[in-house]
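Deliverable D2.4 — example input (structure tokens):
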């Protein structure tokens, strides 16, 4: 009977490992498809809020950026991505919001960004906000992927709660109010905390930074920032 040496076992193990690894490698063999997302604080999300109430009254519109990613292969020529909205939004399309219905995906690229512009005029008639849904429309080059649509909820008002609220917020940002939220937006440059909502360390950094800015405000104006909504000075726990 032939003995199996240590070297034999080693080579058999390596061959089995390589064989298993090759079996586990899967390639995408389906049709070329497009997945849509909203860019939110440099992260891609499937939906986002756009409260234009943060803006000064003289600003008439706001723009967010959507991103289309291919679910397939990169090629050496430009391709066209076709977009649409549901029938229920066609009356508002190109009036309250605008976006390109055809977007060019450049050769060699796997994604492309494009703007979604929202006009303030007309939003007031939507008490709960306007749900803007952008969909992939199938053409000769692409179909809709796993995420074949994305949503932006646009309002012309201020949020009544921190966007992205989690159980960390009471001890980091405290109670939400319009005055307080406007100060946060002015200091941080964003209003949607969803990407970092569970990151209590980052929320701590923002809390400390905002308190420093409150101190600077008091030095500059001679008084602490007053919150008429909460009937007290603005503070962060």
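Example output (designed residues):
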């Amino acid at each position: 009977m032939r003995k199996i040496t240590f070297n034999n076992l080693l080579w058999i193990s390596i061959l089995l490992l390589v064989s298993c690894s090759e079996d586990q490698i899967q390639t995408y063999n389906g049709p070329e498809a497009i997945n849509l997302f909203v860019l939110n604080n440099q992260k891609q999300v499937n939906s986002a809020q756009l409260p234009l109430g943060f803006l000064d009254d003289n600003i008439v519109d706001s723009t967010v950026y959507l991103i289309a990613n291919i679910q397939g292969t990169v090629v050496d020529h430009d391709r066209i991505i076709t977009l649409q909205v549901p029938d229920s939004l066609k009356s508002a399309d190109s009036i309250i919001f605008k976006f390109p219905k055809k977007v060019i995906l450049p050769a060699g690229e796997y994604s492309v960004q494009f703007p979604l512009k929202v006009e303030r005029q007309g939003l007031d008639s939507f008490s709960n906000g306007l749900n803007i849904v952008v969909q992939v429309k199938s053409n000769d080059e692409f179909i809709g992927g796993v995420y074949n649509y994305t949503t932006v909820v646009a309002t012309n008002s201020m949020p009544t709660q921190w966007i992205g609220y989690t159980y960390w917020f009471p001890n980091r940002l405290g109670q939400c109010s319009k005055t307080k939220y406007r100060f946060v937006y002015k200091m941080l440059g964003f209003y949607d905390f969803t990407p970092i909502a569970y990151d209590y360390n980052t929320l701590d950094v923002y809390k400390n930074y905002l308190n420093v800015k409150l101190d600077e405000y008091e030095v500059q104006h001679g008084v602490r920032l007053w919150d008429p909504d909460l009937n007290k000075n603005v503070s962060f726990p």
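The helical segments are 6-24, 178-188, 200-221.
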